[in-house]
Design goal:
By secondary structure, the chain is an alpha+beta fold.
């Protein structure tokens, strides 16, 4: 009895030392998993926007800006898509998005134009709609939302506030 108690006690200590425990379902769970924290949440027109912080192993921190939307093509089902920017060490991609969004705001109802740096997102304006279309990726054609000029400007302002807090 003492030997089995000592054996199982040793196993428990070993599992704790490796940062693993069992959850209620009996699955091994790593205690070094990331902890996600929403720092700023904002509803801008049809967009749900989050500025998040994810901490892994109490040292690796990732800051992200996430823009989520319900696909306008489907109203009977949930079809949510998002565009995400990691701004931990480099804000180039999100700054490019802001620049493209500003250009789209300027070109609304004047021209037909497309903006896309590298397939992370796709912006389109047409001379007839008066809106900016945000697609999750170039060429997907199925997951998109239209944004008014005012909401696009609010999104630009919100992103700049988030990047400034970084």
């Amino acid at each position: 009895m003492k030997k089995s108690l000592l054996f199982f006690g040793s196993l428990f200590i070993i599992s704790i030392s490796f940062g693993q425990t069992k959850d209620k379902a009996g699955q091994t769970k790593d205690k070094t998993q990331s902890k996600d924290k929403v720092k700023i949440k904002e509803k801008i027109g049809p967009l749900d926007c989050w500025y998040t912080q994810s901490i892994k192993a109490h040292k690796d921190t990732t800051l992200s800006i996430i823009i989520g939307f319900q696909n306008e093509e489907f109203t009977d089902i949930t079809n949510i898509k998002s565009v995400e920017f990691n701004i931990t060490s480099d804000t180039t991609n999100v700054q490019r998005f802001v620049s493209h969004l500003r250009s789209a705001i300027r070109d609304i109802a004047k021209d037909t134009a497309e903006y896309n740096p590298n397939d992370e997102y796709y912006l389109q304006v047409t001379d007839f709609s008066g809106n900016i279309y945000l697609f999750d990726t170039k060429g997907s054609g199925e997951k998109n939302i239209h944004i008014s000029k005012d909401d696009a400007q609010k999104l630009v302002d919100w992103i700049e506030r988030c990047v400034a807090k970084k």
